[in-house]
Design brief:
Chain A is α+β, with helices and mostly antiparallel strands. Helices cover about 25% and strands about 20% of the residues of chain A. The chains are: A alpha+beta, B alpha/beta.
C-alpha cells in the first residue's frame, strides 16, 4: 500500500510539523485537551485526509527504516 | 526664487579611501547630496536631530521582514539604549521575534526555489529566507499557554495591544528579544493589527480548546487614547518608518488626532505613491492632513530597509559615541509616575 492511501497522522489534515519528520502537532487533540504531540506514523478515529500531500509520512517511514 | 538660488551648492564628488568609517561615508554621500545617497545622508542628519532634540518622542514603525532578515539585535540595541521611545509594529514582526525567543530560527535561503517542495517539507518562504513550520508550531503551543495564563490573571478584563505585547514580553526569557527588551526598558509596543498575524490565528486554537474558561481578550480600540496621549504630551514627535502600512498610519493618525503633527519623519520604503496607498505616499502628502508639520525635517529614502536602516543607525551612533546617554521625555514621564496616559 502506498503512503497516499494509508491513514497516518502525517497525512491527516489536523497535522502540523512539530519535530520533522517523526512528530506532528495535532490541532484536533489540542482542542480536546489531549496531548497534541503524536507520532507521524500513528493515527486515530478522527483521521481526515489532507487536501495537499506533504513528505511527512514518506520521510518518517524512511527514518523508521534506517533505525531498524 | 531667483535663478542664482537654484545654484547654491555644487555637487562634490565622493572620495573613498581604505579607512573610511560608516559616518565618514555618509559625509561623502552628503557632499554629493544627490539621489539615494543624498537622501540617506539626510536621514542620518534627521535621526541625529531626533535623538539630540530635547523632549522629542521617537516612534519606530516596523513592518515586513525586519526580524527574519536580521535586524532583531539592531532594534533591541536601540531599545536598550533608549534611542527610540515607542514601537508600532505589525503583529507579524513581533511573531518573528517571539519565534526566535523560544528557540526558533530563520534561515538563509533563496528566491528561485521549488515552492511546492518547500510546502511538502513544511518550510515557509519569506522571499529568500526560510522558516520551518515547527518553529511556528512550537511558538503557537507556548502562546496558547501564555494566553490562558494572561487571561486567568486578567479575570475577563480585556487588554490593549500594548498591554498584550508587555505581557508576552514578560513571559519571554530571551534578552535578545525585542518584546523582552521592550518589557525590560518600559518601551511600549503597539500592535494595531495584532489580529492579522499568528498572534490572532493562534487565538482561535486557544479559545476553541475544550473547557477553556480563560479566553484572552485583546481590544485594539483601547490603544487609541494611550498612543494619542503620548503624542499630545510629548513636546515634539518624530517618526521612523521601516516599510509602512498600518504601523505608519497609526503613528501619523495619532499625531493628527492629538493635534500635534510630526516634527521629524524618516520613511524607508520601496512602495510608490501612485496607488494612493499609505505605504508609498509622500511625506508632503501627510502635511495636507496635518499629520506632519509643514516645517518638519523629513526625508523618504527609497530603498530596502535592511540595506538602509543599519547605515543610518551606524552613522548616528558613531556621531553620538559610546558615552552618549539619551534623556528621553517619555522615560522621564514614566519614571515620574505619570504613566502613558
Amino acid at each position: 500500500m502506498s503512503s497516499d492511501s494509508e491513514e497516518f497522522c502525517g497525512n491527516c489534515d489536523s497535522h502540523n510539523s512539530y519535530e520533522y519528520p517523526t512528530k506532528v502537532f495535532c490541532s484536533t487533540r489540542y482542542w480536546h485537551n489531549e496531548n497534541p504531540i503524536v507520532d507521524t506514523l500513528w493515527h486515530c478515529d478522527s483521521y481526515n485526509k489532507v487536501s495537499q500531500e506533504c513528505y511527512c509520512v514518506k520521510e518518517a517511514k524512511k527514518k523508521a527504516d534506517s533505525t531498524k | 526664487m531667483d535663478r542664482k538660488d537654484y545654484l547654491k551648492e555644487p555637487v562634490n564628488h565622493i572620495k573613498i579611501n581604505g579607512t573610511l568609517t560608516v559616518d565618514q561615508l555618509m559625509q561623502q554621500f552628503k557632499n554629493s547630496g544627490s539621489l539615494g545617497a543624498g537622501r540617506l545622508a539626510e536621514a542620518c542628519d534627521i535621526y541625529e536631530k531626533m535623538v539630540r532634540e530635547k523632549d522629542c518622542t521617537i516612534f519606530l514603525a516596523l513592518s515586513g521582514a525586519v526580524v527574519p532578515a536580521g535586524m532583531r539585535t539592531l532594534i533591541v540595541d536601540l531599545i536598550r539604549n533608549h534611542l527610540i521611545d515607542v514601537i508600532v509594529s505589525t503583529g507579524a514582526c513581533m511573531v518573528h521575534d517571539a519565534i526566535e525567543a523560544v528557540g526558533g530560527h530563520h534561515y538563509k535561503g533563496g528566491w528561485s526555489v521549488n515552492d511546492v517542495e518547500l510546502y511538502k517539507y513544511h518550510l515557509f518562504r519569506i522571499y529568500d529566507i526560510f522558516v520551518p513550520e515547527e518553529d511556528y508550531v512550537r511558538l503557537d503551543f507556548k502562546l496558547s499557554e501564555m494566553y490562558a495564563d494572561i487571561a486567568k490573571e486578567r479575570k475577563g478584563a480585556s487588554l490593549a495591544s500594548n498591554d498584550f505585547a508587555y505581557e508576552i514580553g514578560k513571559r519571554l526569557t530571551d534578552k535578545n528579544s525585542i518584546l523582552r527588551a521592550a518589557y525590560d526598558e518600559n518601551i511600549p509596543i503597539f500592535l494595531p493589527s495584532v489580529r492579522d498575524s499568528e498572534f490572532g490565528f493562534i487565538h482561535w486554537l486557544h479559545a476553541s480548546q475544550k473547557d477553556q474558561n480563560n479566553v484572552l481578550l485583546v481590544d485594539a480600540f483601547k490603544d487609541v487614547p494611550t498612543i494619542c496621549q503620548i503624542c499630545a504630551k510629548s513636546p515634539k514627535n518624530a517618526m521612523i518608518v521601516i516599510g509602512g502600512g498600518v504601523p505608519r498610519n497609526t503613528i501619523q493618525s495619532s499625531a493628527l488626532a492629538s493635534k500635534k503633527g510630526l516634527d521629524y519623519a524618516i520613511v524607508i520604503t520601496l512602495d510608490r505613491p501612485e496607488t494612493g496607498g499609505l505605504s508609498g505616499s509622500t511625506l508632503e502628502e501627510t502635511v495636507s492632513w496635518g499629520k506632519m508639520k509643514g516645517a518638519a525635517d523629513h526625508v523618504m529614502v527609497i530603498g530596502e530597509a535592511l540595506m538602509v536602516f543599519p547605515f543610518i543607525v551606524a552613522s548616528v551612533r558613531e556621531r553620538l559615541g559610546d558615552a552618549f546617554k539619551r534623556d528621553s521625555f517619555l522615560q522621564r514621564e514614566q519614571l515620574a509616575g505619570k504613566g502613558l496616559t
